[in-house]
């Protein structure tokens, strides 16, 4: 997509990425509903006036809306008998309505959307690992800063650090962890150069960070090495990477809630579009990797216990399973209203954060401020 103008590439990448993720999410709901014997009345990707629509032989309407900001699956008999008017109840198909299914089946249908997004992320990561390859841990030095501790010790680009103070290292992160608390302290560094090991002594410089002084060696990591995996190994690593991204995302959300991390990483549709456009400019692999990470985020967001989202429905079903009967209609209605208000507030906040990243918006805010 690098040959396209920036605005066109950004819009196209945004539509493709979001369209695929929404389609897979709703496909999860659709397939689970079919599995549990629930008729699906409508499968929609996008909102607004449809640009394409057709009905299959099972009576499901498939629709593509012109606003690519989401989608939905309309399940047959999704309303309870008390909520549905008589004419709607009269058209219900016995045995195929959502509300009459046991709570387990309803939970399966609702959870299938996020599960489909997790599965998509794992498959996308696996595709990258089986074609481009899995980045391998390395301690190769890519750059050496002038007048740094590394330069004074004679380290050169291309050297591979194999041990620090006699402790073997295999990842650059291990080098950083060893050096940071040792500002001003001599460190024995064993390197591999031209096939032979040699040991040099370097004294890390100190760099103030808050109330701490961190040791700095002055080297940058070299280019990563990639190893292509067989399909099964790639799939396993895709699952592992999906889990790691999930954990890191939840940790970041927890840090934002506790105030130990800022909210600069929050983004809405504009931010997603800008990142998608940049990923597309870097190439197909970059775009697929971004899609995989975004698929994980979409799954996690939908599992948050907020009414309106899938997680909120699952929360109600859990309460129903414990109580032996659904929550009162009034309680569910209040929950959905609160959840909808929360989503609107988050959408507005995320959009404002996106706008603040635009140069002309920052300048306008400075003038108004």
Task: Provide a brief overview of the structure.
By secondary structure, the protein is an alpha+beta fold. It has helices spanning 6-35, 86-90, 103-131, 149-153, 172-179, 231-258, 269-282, 284-303, 310-323, 329-356, 359-368, and strands at 40-55, 61-75, 134-136, 141-144, 160-164, 167-168, 187-193, 196-202, 205-209, 212-216, 219-221, 225-227. The protein has eleven helices and twelve strands.
> Order of strands across the biggest sheet?
6-5-7-8
How many strand units? 12
The end-to-end span amounts to 39 Å
Largest sheet: 4 strands, antiparallel
Q: Can you give the mean pLDDT?
A: 86
Description:
This protein is of the alpha+beta class. The protein folds into two domains: 6-36 and 101-132 and 251-368, no CATH class; 139-223, Pdz3 Domain, CATH 2.30.42. Helices cover 52% and strands 20% of the residues. It has eleven helices and twelve strands. The protein has helices at residues 6-35, 86-90, 103-131, 149-153, 172-179, 231-258, 269-282, 284-303, 310-323, 329-356, 359-368, and strands at 40-55, 61-75, 134-136, 141-144, 160-164, 167-168, 187-193, 196-202, 205-209, 212-216, 219-221, 225-227. The strands form five sheets. Strands 6-5-7-8 form a four-stranded antiparallel sheet. β9 (205-209) and β10 form a beta hairpin. α1 crosses α3, α3 (103-131) packs across α6 (231-258) and α7 (269-282) runs antiparallel to α8 (284-303). The protein is elongated, with a radius of gyration of 26 Å. The model has no long low-confidence stretch (mean pLDDT 86).
